[in-house]
User: What shape does this take?
Amino acid sequence: MKNFCLMLLLVLTAIPAWAAPQHGGILKYGIASTSITVGVDPHVIQGDRTGWVLGQITESLLNYDKDMNTVPWLAESWDISDDAKTYTFHLRKGVRFHNGREMRATDVKYSFERILDPNTGSRRRKNLEVIDHIEIIDEYTTRVVLKSPLSAFLTYLVGAYGAIIPKESCGADGKVTHPVGTGPFTFVEWVKNDHLTLQKNTDYWIKGIPYLDGIIFKPLPDEAVRLTALRTGAVDITHSLPEKMLPILTKKVNKEFTLQILPGVSWRMLIFNNRKPPFDNKKLRQAVNYAIDREELNDALTWGFGTVKNQIWPKDSFWHMGGSPVKQDIKKAKQLLGEAGYADGVDLLLEVKPNFQPVAEVIQDQLKKSGIRLKLGVLDWASLKPKMKNYEYQMVVSGAGWYSDPDARYGRFYASDGPANYFAGGYTDAMIDELLKKGRGEKDPLMRKQIYQEVFDKLSDDVPHLMLFHLPMTHAWRKDIMGFNVSAQGDLFYEEGGLPYTWIKK
Amino acid sequence: MIKYITQRIIQLIPVLLLMSIIVFSLIHLIPGDPVDVMMGEGHVDPVVEAALRKQMHLDKPIPIQYFYWLKGVVCGNFGKSAITNEPVFSMIMKRFPATALLALSAAFVAILISIPAGIIAAVRQNRLPDYFAMGISLAGISIPNFWLGVMLILFFSQFLGLLPSMGYEPLFTNTKLALLHLIMPAITLGTAMAASLTRFTRSEVLEELNKDYVRTARAKGLKEYIVVLKHVLKNSLIPTITIIGLQIGGLLEGAVITETVFAWPGIGRLAVRAIFERDYPLVQGIVLIAAVIYVLVNLIVDIAYTLLDPRVRLEGR
Assistant: This one.
């Protein structure tokens, strides 16, 4: 935690707050598309980074503010029935799609039904599976009736996954190749692996924005290439800079660009195969838990710019569950290993994607001290995923990001039918299932907190997978770029912030 | 001649058929499929996955999938990308000009350096120019593409600010800008080819220099530069041109790295991405088109022989 002062906010030069925004200019954004960019269909896309891009074109009924609270957006307001099963949305009037047609209740119905159709291929279909049917009350009012109460429902509508799109933007085969939405920018063209171009929506429903005439997103998967691109002016803004460069970049007086380091939301984890020996043995999982030195991992892999936490929630969040990260305790690890039946040590296999190989190497070294000998295997993601889904592995290092509601965090991972259950090593527990179901239906936040605290405590003991460290979230932009900021989750368009509020000083 | 060319093009068909079967089998043998990739990390939804597999015919046996693909290709339809749903042919054609420009410029750079360097090294064998050319070409073979690319960017873009560090501009819209973008990628990719080609040219010229007709030419009093440029060069170029044709394949390979360093939107990067994404139709399409190009380039090389050596006759049997 030696860099705790950096974690809060590090802006090396202050932007004069009184400067009046200027209109015009094309912004070039260097985007780290390590997660594979899948098309431009907002309902199908995967990966937050594609979501950032498409979030400039399409919008949802709700949006987030800077601190990830939901705020009214295309829906001006809503009513929730007492049983938390009926949501009535009152749409904003006069919002036009990029094709000039006004957005109506029928578009909301069409969009949600499209997400629910398995043929669309939306990877967030499961989030909306709870919808029973959608009624149209009048042109600007729509009612969504759920099969069972779901208190996190509103958060599942935010973002490009819940985009409201016009039916006429889908081709005859039902696919979207030219996305149309209500957002501040309109889609111009996309050339895979090269660029995606957006143009200002001059008829945007929030008057006065965007300031930019257009944005060109350039996918630059290599972090060193991103930094060079920023320095040479090939891009104006970029993110996720190489952590090993941060000590140098933060020390020298920087005349070229502004650097921002925020506590990150994406974390690295060690997944155990809970369903098969040897890791169906809780004692062995606990032994590994104590054998790992998280601080050292954080120092080695993020140069100390990351954070070691025992949960995703920030300290000041309502959902913070207390407690602290487990410290390395080799004596205890050896004792647990003995209790697990491996008093003479054990040989195990750890498999990773190429980008997680450095993490795996540090873990390999740390576990050796407790008598756990690791062999490493490196596979590409398309080969590793089927192994994980079929539980044909022992341990895997992977990553995940932050979600704004505990149902999205705990329900996804630990419910036995959760869409990300295989990322928790296929962990199943009847009591956890029961608690998570209760948490979904409970309306009172205080009661929900209690339920999830119980879940959290049991999981801290069961350790289906381990949280290792959180990456820092870094952004850098050239000196003539003004008013740029990101939300706590890194989104590029949230209430009163992001790219629509960014401008270029002439 | 026309008959010969027609025959060569007809011979292409079984080659492509066989190659497409091999590639199809190989890519289906690696674990994983495009649906797994599309669903991303941390998501499993059997309902959606089954629907998508059905759409892409992935639920059918592999020979039947191959038949579907072949049927499309015969009708001129390369199918749509499994991941992005874009037509494969247009995806490749969008990138083709960039790759063609890069490969041709790299070959141009390579030839421009290697042929004169090879000749000088041979004529001044075991003297300073020879050692110099051979030393440089050894370094050229040894230096990895990505390192050279990054060094060029650091020097010409960051320190001198002369050249743009990345990107591609179409040649005919803004020629000056396009050439500025082209210089460093072309040098990076051309260097390795130039290095090996220099050594090859040198040894070929040396071999010719020791032949009887050279002695005759010298004996009848021809000036040395005429001996080398008019007699020796023409004869030594025939094997060199064969090597250039074969190296076009190597250029496509090296292009993957160069394209990554310079964010060049070419086919090489597209191919690598397609393999990682298990985008079967796209991989098939790229390999097919690359094979056609390779065969055509070597056909052109064969035709070039006749221009260099009138004794070579290309005749259909």
